[in-house]
Amino acid sequence: MLADYHMHCKPYSPDAQDTMLDMAEGALERGMTHICVTNHVENCTQDPDFPDQFPPFEDWEALWRDFVSVKDAMGGRLDVRLGAEVGAPHYLPEEGRRIYARPELDFVIGSVHNLRKARDFYFLSYPEDFDNFRPAAEQYIDEYIELARSGMCDVLGHIGYMQKYMARQGKGFDMMIFEERLRVLFKTCVEYGVGIEVNTAAIHDTLKDFLPQPSVVRLYRECGGEIITVGSDSHRRFDAGRDVDAGYGLLRECGFKYVCLYREHRPEFVKL
Ligand SMILES: [Zn+2]
Ligand SMILES: [Zn+2]
Question: How is residue 55 annotated by DSSP?
Fold first, then answer.
């Protein structure tokens, strides 16, 4: 069993290069048995002062038709489910709840790509001195704490996202300097039944590591965390399913016995 629970496709994700069918075929070639297609939904992070955000997503009918045809095309070869990666749904709670309740979705990843009144971490230039970035990093973890309490997502996406872009600028930090805050976050996750994902996309980026970094995944387990998914965060066919097997290796090393699939927002535990 290999389940890639984070992937994007065109035309629904503006930064994706290949179709849903391409992504499913790519995942199958890489040995996946399950995928969940999770396109960007940035409806809750729209701000006229920050126009480089992806436009809001509303074309659920076209997405659903595409999903049904890909599911049919894959037949019994690949279990295909539909989810979404929703940017900070708690920034606009009414909309966040509306998206979470969409009948098309089995699974929602909640991801903080930008702080309130700020651009996506992808666009930032990071200071030489980490102390100048520390308050943003603390705020970032606090946003995930709020997100975990919100009831608007099933797992928290790629905790430590900015580390990927800092690495490209030759900078970085050890997320474990925020261990106490992360403990609060993970205890909140356990209390509210929210999981985390291990995102493998930065393994083949400058960072060359999982997100969250392995010591943070271990801390989640130590805090009693059991609900966890693995996703490639792929935006093109070639990356579909990439390093999901390495993610499973990390889970085993950290003491996880199960990885999760999702149906109607309920985790299904599959033995690792
Ligand atoms: Zn993301
Ligand atoms: Zn993504």
Answer: P
**C-alpha 132 – ligand 2 centre gap (Å):** 27
Residue 240: how many other CB atoms lie within 10 Å: 26
Nearest bound ligand to the CA of residue 112:
1
Q: Which ligand is nearest to the CA of 161?
A: 1
Residue-wise pLDDT for 46-90, tens only, equals 999 998 999 999 999 999 999 999 999 999 999 999 999 999 999
Quote the mean pLDDT of the chain.
98
Ligand positioned closest to the Cα atom of 42: 1
Domain 3-271 architecture: Alpha-Beta Barrel (3.20)
Which pLDDT belongs to residue 25? 98
| Residues with a beta carbon under 5 angstroms from ion ligand 2 | 85, 233
Hey, where are the domains in the chain?
A: 3-271
Q: How far apart are CA 244 and CA 4, in angstroms?
A: 6
**How far does the centroid of ligand 2 lie from the alpha carbon of residue 179, in Å?**
25
Q: Where are the beta strands (DSSP E) in the chain?
A: 3-4, 34-41, 79-87, 107-111, 155-156, 195-199, 228-231, 258-263, 266-271
